[in-house]
Amino acid sequence: KQEVTQIPAALSVPEGENLVLNCSFTDSAIYNLQWFRQDPGKGLTSLLLIQSSQREQTSGRLNASLDKSSGRSTLYIAASQPGDSATYLCAVSKGTGANSKLTFGKGITLSVRP
Amino acid sequence: NAGVTQTPKFRILKIGQSMTLQCTQDMNHNYMYWYRQDPGMGLKLIYYSVGAGITDKGEVPNGYNVSRSTTEDFPLRLELAAPSQTSVYFCASSLLTGYQPQHFGDGTRLSIL
């Protein structure tokens, strides 16, 4: 059974710091990995999706990397801002169709201090 | 473009009552999913559907039922509400290919008292 772990559960950093959020998964036979952002009382917003054949994806100040063989992914946030404060979740899928369902980590709650 | 719409946003039920959580999407997505999120936990899959007329159980299906009569709608039914079903419920949808991310609604916050 796939398990996704995100440690630490919470992180507080000063504004302007570059930071890395970690995600690990136990079964390397994944199809894709997704990073989501969740604001309090809201749903999830997709940030980046990495296919199993890819090493990284970038969107603005965000960069996600994937090392499938070691079961790890990182989300790099450059020059953090207070508006980046949210919970960040990673999730993996095994394939398409019935295997497209996601297995989620518990998330990392990020607080960026002004 | 509305995306994924969930209703109601909040609801309080008494033990033993029943209700239906509504979910509709206007993106013509084949895949739809229902998750629940408990405090401090990740999301757990309740049921999913790969197309109209096709549904299957996820990780935590007990106490719930679903139907998928149209591409747009994927309602979740609680027949006999129990305190353990107090949670935030999210509906999501995605395209068939798996190369596109899942799109989520804003959730339904449900309390069973």
Low-confidence runs of chain A = none
Mean pLDDT of chain B: 93
What would you report as the Rg of chain A, rounded to the nearest angstrom? 14 Å
What class do helices, strands and sheet pairing of chain A give?
A: mainly beta
* Class by alpha and beta content of chain B: mainly beta
The helix/strand order of chain B is: EEEEEEEEEEE
How many beta-strand elements of chain A?
11
Low-confidence stretches of chain B: none
Largest sheet of chain B: 7 strands, mixed
What summary fits the major beta sheet of chain A? 6 strands, mixed
> What Rg of chain B, in angstroms, do the CA atoms define?
13 Å
Whole-number mean pLDDT of chain A: 94
What string gives the helices and strands of chain A in order? EEEEEEEEEEE
- Secondary structure: helix percent of chain B: under 10%
Number of distinct helices of chain B: 0
Helix content of chain A: under 10%
The oligomeric state of the chains shown is heterodimer
Tell me what you see in this structure:
The complex is a heterodimer of chains A (114) and B (113). Chain A is an all-beta fold and 114 residues long. Chain A has no helices and 11 strands. In chain A, the strands form 2 sheets. In chain A, strands 2, 4, 5, 9, 10 and 11 form a 6-stranded mixed sheet that branches. In chain A, strands 1-3-8-7-6 form a 5-stranded antiparallel sheet, with no helix packed on it. In chain A, a hairpin with a 2-residue loop joins β6 (56-59) and β7 (62-67). The radius of gyration of chain A is 14 Å and the shape is globular. The relative contact order of chain A is 0.33. The mean pLDDT of chain A is 94. Chain B is mainly beta. Chain B has no helices and 11 strands. Chain B has strands at residues 4-7, 10-13, 19-25, 31-37, 43-51, 54-57, 64-66, 76-78, 87-94, 103-104, 108-112. In chain B, the strands form 2 sheets. In chain B, strands 2, 4, 5, 6, 9, 10 and 11 form a 7-stranded mixed sheet that branches. Chain B has a 4-stranded antiparallel sheet with strand order 1-3-8-7, with no helix packed on it. In chain B, β4 and β5 form a beta hairpin. The radius of gyration of chain B is 13 Å and the shape is globular. Classes of the chains: A mainly beta (114), B mainly beta (113).
